[in-house]
Design brief:
Chains A, B: GO terms for molecular function: DNA-binding transcription factor activity; transcription cis-regulatory region binding. Chains A, B: Residues 31-50 bind DNA. Chains A, B: Residues 8-68 form the HTH tetR-type domain. Chains A, B: InterPro entries: Homeodomain-like_sf, HTH-type_TetR-like_transc_reg, HTH_TetR. Chains A, B: This is HTH-type transcriptional regulator RutR. Two copies of one chain form a homodimer. Chain A has helices at residues 7-25, 32-39, 43-49, 53-65, 79-105, 110-115, 117-155. With 174 residues, chain A is mostly helical. The first copy, chain A, folds into two domains: 7-63, Homeodomain-like (Arc Repressor Mutant, subunit A); 67-165, no CATH class. In chain A, helix 2 (32-39) crosses helix 3 (43-49). The first copy, chain A, is elongated, with a radius of gyration of 18 Å. In chain A, 40% of the residues are buried. At the A-B interface, helix 5, helix 6 and helix 7 of A face helix 5, helix 6 and helix 7 of B. The structure holds a DNA duplex (30 and 30 nucleotides).
Chain lengths: 174, 174
DNA sequence: ATCTTTTTCGTCCATTTGGTCCAGATAAAG
DNA sequence: CTTTATCTGGACCAAATGGACGAAAAAGAT
């Protein structure tokens, strides 16, 4: 019958692209019109795939939080080198993802955050990665250090900025 | 002449209160009407003190970033205990402040962040605090660990949430 | 009491927002 | 070429937004 478009696959693609827009502009600062334009479709087309702005945002966060940072572990390297590798892999997108996560978590009380499945999985995922390098024993400590390093780097202006992935168009402020 | 209202002092008070609203709702998610209502004045009165929404937001971030976490150092305690103290002092407001900072930094490229005076001072301030406890040598490392611990705690839902300080009114989503 | 200056407030306006709706385009199947 | 399910873009809506004014209120100074 009509265009052969795999709804699920396509909407996942859209969510990935939209995520960068959301993190660059914040949830409230993002309008469906602008995202649609950024994605190269009309607003109505976007609404065809996501019934609501919040649904789109949710899809984006799920996308980001379930991202795999796979096969970064190289047994030939030292723990420190492997941690540096992981750091380097996360650094470029860290600020962007944290920005999205903060929007996602905004207004949630600690209990709600603790109960959030996606968030829990994302943290567990990273913890497992670190544990794979330094062992369960030091995993928590090294994960803290990793996140702290990423955060401090961003706050010091040495990391990749939020706009990095989305530069092309628009030039609004805040 | 007119009402004896110290413009500077009063606007600083307003900025402090407004900061919690901004961090609870995000920059774009905050309207001048709502903040004004939250602060207990009319929109126009608010505009009298801050010419622009952005000016208000800037004042808020300056307020947050220049906050002093003074005299937390107790020589009688071990380094670890002092670090724990610092952690405990920062934990309740960490998420809220980071949320504001992410909004503040949004859209800024690394170079611009590195050049940002207020941001630089805030980081230097915290680094100095840590250095006062563990010495310059280990300051950077311990600061990373401190920030990582704060961040991980928040992401795990064990810390103080964003709403903590502003609960009373409003019940909007995201 | 009457100025005079700061602070406060209500109202207005153009623009943008999320979301709905429908006419037209698209393309596989007959 | 026609059918037919799917996609698309633009028009439209009520609500909210940032900001601009001008008028009102408050209160020190005379």
């Amino acid at each position: 019958m009509p265009k052969i478009v795999d709804h699920d696959v396509y909407s996942r693609q859209l969510a990935v692209q939209a995520a960068s827009y959301f993190s660059a502009h914040g949830y409230a600062g993002t309008s469906m019109r602008k995202v649609a334009a950024h994605l190269g479709l009309s607003k109505s087309a976007l609404y065809h795939y996501f019934p609501t702005k919040e649904a789109l945002f949710l899809a984006c966060t799920q996308m980001i939080m379930s991202g795999e940072e796979a096969d970064l572990l190289d047994p030939a390297l030292s723990d420190g080198q492997n941690l540096d590798r992981l750091y380097s892999a996360m650094a470029p997108t860290f600020a962007s993802e944290m920005s999205l996560v903060f929007d996602y978590l905004r207004g949630k009380e600690p209990a709600a955050i603790a109960a959030d499945e996606a968030m829990g999985l994302a943290v567990a995922n990273y913890r497992a990665l670190v544990a794979g390098i330094v062992g369960e024993e030091r995993a928590e400590e090294e994960l803290q250090r990793l996140l702290g390093r990423l955060l401090l780097t961003y706050l010091s202006g040495s990391g990749a900025g939020l706009e990095a992935e989305i530069r092309p168009e628009n030039g609004e402020a805040v």
